Amino acid sequence: MSATAAVPEKELEAATAKTHDGTNAIVTQIIAHSDDADDALKAFANYDHGVSIDQETNRKLLRKIDLNIMPLLCIVYMLQFVDKVSLSYGSVTGLRQDLHLVGDQYSWLASIFNFGYLFWEYPTNRLMQHLPLAKYTSFNIIMWGAVLALLATTKNFGGAATLRFFMGVFESAVTPGFAYFTSQWYTKREQCARVNYWFAFAGLSQIFGGVLAWGIAKGIRIHGSEIASWKVIFLTLGLLTAAVGVLFWFIMPDNQLNAKFLTSEERALAVERIRENNQGIGNRHFKMYQFKEALTDPMTWAFCFHSIVANIGAGGVTNFFSQLIAGFGYTPEQSLLYGSAGGAVEIVALVLSGYIGQRTKQRILSSLGGGVAAILGVALIAGLPLAKKVGRLLGYYLLQAGPTPFKTTFGAIYFVGYCIGNIIGPQVFRPKDAPRYQPAVITILVCWTLSLLDAIFIWWWYRKLNQKKAELRKAPGYKKVENQEWLDLTDLENPEFTYEI
């Protein structure tokens, strides 16, 4: 899978100039050694005169792909997020007391999940490159569901921490895997909306998980149970996730080439329709020069910084929102129910951001509105007195719009930043600061402001590079290399690649 990299203008001009006569050494070498090319070329093996797709056929094919791909991605992403926040549900339904947690042990239970995620992030990306994508993803879904169910058997901090670590290991495949699925099935113009669809199910997960946890807690309080509420929550969600993972194994294709819901002709057309992405559908070879190129890209580190500061806030809120709402003056059961309503805000914010981004072709700028709303929400929580619990709850709902600025890109280094931010996030919620958690709220306010400024910088940088590439393509003597879309070129090597901003 290609690394993507942005470079200073002089380097971009020099590298791209090599392709003008169609004899670029790297491209020639890739063509000569077809094993280095993208898997997409296999789809055209039986078509001597190429494949073309008209607008009506493309529309019907897109609808067919949506109906068969998107529901699974959305449901699994919803379960992934609700499983992650289930710890927050447990925190107000007896988990702290039953596991005898003291001091900052709950914060470490939240953070250790991301140590597992960080530990396995690089290996899981390599395994996704070498193994069938859908089958590997399915295995991880089943395993994290099983680990979540096993959390109901723990009796102390050590046992729970071990299982939380392995939950992070198995869940590390989901979001990057879903990014790969989206990029291999959809054009760049379509990807923004599709990422928003399955990302918005993180909002639905808050509604589903909050109502489920509230119903279990209330039912057990009224009717009694031999099993504690938090254990029933973990068992229910874990077994449900594992069952969906089994369905994923049998239904989800690894790519267009083995999609059972497509005919052989439709498979070739499904590959052809994403030619404009200049990204291919998958290459199983690790290329050191692409790795080095990504590491020297200033945007790699801009995205990494964005991921860290954005997820310090997200990681803290994810694991402490039930306690935060209870700290406003609501009962534990009310915190579960009222917290679920925040999911509706997230869904509206993500869908609206995606729609505006697709209409205006300004994905980054259109996402900033949610970030501004989230900053306003955090400011309300920090500034209003404890007695103003309705106003502070409104602030919590506004901060649910926060995910819109950081749903626009994915990559291994980005997810390293994601893990670091989520490790730090729970640690800023110190037990001595309860119930207001004022230092944590102020930290989130600063971090999300920095992430917003960083997103604006990223937009400016990529806009500048797009303009430079457009000038190079217009240069005298420029010639596009045939089938270069499928040659696993990085954006540095490929002058036809443009950044969707």
Automatic annotation (TrEMBL):
- Provide the topology term for how it sits in the membrane: Multi-pass membrane protein
User: Where mainly located?
Assistant: membrane
Q: Which Gene3D superfamilies match?
A: MFS general substrate transporter like domains
Show the Pfam families listed in the entry. MFS_1 (PF07690)
Gene Ontology CC, one term: membrane
Identify the InterPro entries for this entry.
MFS (IPR011701), MFS_trans_sf (IPR036259)
Q: Where in the cell is it found?
A: Membrane
One GO MF term on file is: transmembrane transporter activity
Transmembrane segments annotated in the record for this chain? 65-82, 105-122, 134-153, 165-183, 195-216, 228-251, 308-330, 336-356, 368-388, 408-429, 441-462
Q: Which UniProt keywords apply?
A: Membrane, Transmembrane, Transmembrane helix, Transport
Q: Which domain of life is it from?
A: Eukaryota
Report the family membership. Answer: Belongs to the major facilitator superfamily. Allantoate permease family.
What is the official name of this protein in its record? Major facilitator superfamily (MFS) profile domain-containing protein
Q: Which organism is it from?
A: Orbilia brochopaga
